[in-house]
Amino acid sequence: MTTPLPPPCIPPEALAAALRTAGHAALSPSGLRDLARADADALDALRPSWNELPPDAYLRDGGHYRRRRHSCFIVEGDIVEQVPHRAHWQPVEYNALHGGLERWFEAMDTAVVAQPVWPQLLRSLAAPCSALKGAQPWYVEAHQFRIDTTDGIGRPTPEGAHRDGVDFVVVALVDRAGVKGGETRVVDAAGPSGIRFTMSEPWTTLMLDDERVIHETTPIQPLDIGGHRDTLVLTFRAGAFQGPQVPR
What we know:
Layout: H1 15-22, E1 24-27, H2 29-36, H3 40-44, E2 66-76, E3 79-82, H4 110-113, H5 117-133, E4 138-148, E5 168-177, E6 179-181, E7 184-188, E8 194-197, E9 205-209, E10 213-217, E11 220-222, E12 228-238
Antiparallel strand pairs: 1-9, 2-3, 2-4, 4-12, 5-9, 5-12, 6-11, 7-8, 7-10
Helix pairs in contact: 1-5
């Protein structure tokens, strides 16, 4: 068995510069804590909520390996505001498997978003977005995912290598237990260059410039009963949330 490659983590103060240069950057768990000015216990207090995720009823590949919740926020400077619950929508150009479909997932637990570390996390990750594209409101969709091995294999990105149709994407590993695989791959959208690595330590975080790179995570397979991979995915978009185009 080959040894998984570790993520090429950078210090948090270099995040914006790395995104500007390469279009992607990884933070270690301590780097994320430093960026968010949060201690480990505060972040780990979010983790039990991943045990309460309902099944994803919209999987079009016939699988039963994904659980999730979804909520939306607007971040402007120091202000973080949760907006009324809304559907998750992507155009087919960015998600050939599930695009063009309004998907109404259950909202994140109010006890999770009420924890002080939650707005700290969103503010800290919106800051490099503003550093690169100017200070403005950021329309943030938050997804809690659990990919398990109920079907013998779990697919973190069933749509394959993709972009999300936003400005920036953040993928934070929350837990990984009893599985193999799950390699993260990031490729330049304009050429063949790219990187691959495996996130294994909780709160390891990847940030992507969605206009410049394509990303995917390879399937996971079980090593133990109950094997799973938990992530928090945040998308940051300028101007508005994604939604169906209304004919004029």
